[in-house]
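We read letters as residues; the fold follows as tokens. Both lines appear below.
***
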Amino acid sequence: MFRSAARAIGFAAALFLFQIVPFAAASSQPRIDIQGGDASEVEVAADGSASHRASGFIFPRQLVDMPLRGLTVYGPSDASAYYTLGGGGTGDAWITFYVYPATISLAEESAGVEQSLLQILQGRRIDPPAPAPANFQMGRVAWFEGLYKNIDARTGYMLVQRGQWFLKARITVPKKGGPEAMDRALKAIAALQWDWGENKSDEQGA
């Protein structure tokens, strides 16, 4: 299950935003959306990167060619960053990367994420488009396809536990973006710091 309803609502809002608002150019500073807690949970650096204050995790200013567009704070120690080059309105992929406390097991969190995605997307599970990157170990990954607000898309998630923290990416690739959008998304998720922090999981492999 999602740790908070706010995070599930935030995902739906992001899908709607990226459907209708293509991005023309990268902004030097990401915007911050507060759904719970306060803006002090994240800190934006002059170079456009941002830090998750409680864990010290750094959200890079760019994943390959996908800039950091915005940050969302859901509550204490619970935040995400999202990345896209053009936005869903152009058929381009986007990634939301979450860092939040691991208050339940990896297996429980993974089951909840999958249930929520199936409900939101009204879709079905599919084979992953590529193997998980080499630095992604002892975690969970799954992909789905479905229709949401007229976007026919493939959406995947990747989840690991690092010490007391969950690191999670949710990747959405509109089908109209074709192989180029999927290639961009796969390169971006491979650039994430999956091996950050203490490797701790109840899983034996990705």
DSSP finds three helices and twelve strands in the chain. Residues 5-20 form the longest helix (16 residues). The radius of gyration is 15 Å. The first strand starts at residue 31 and ends at 34.
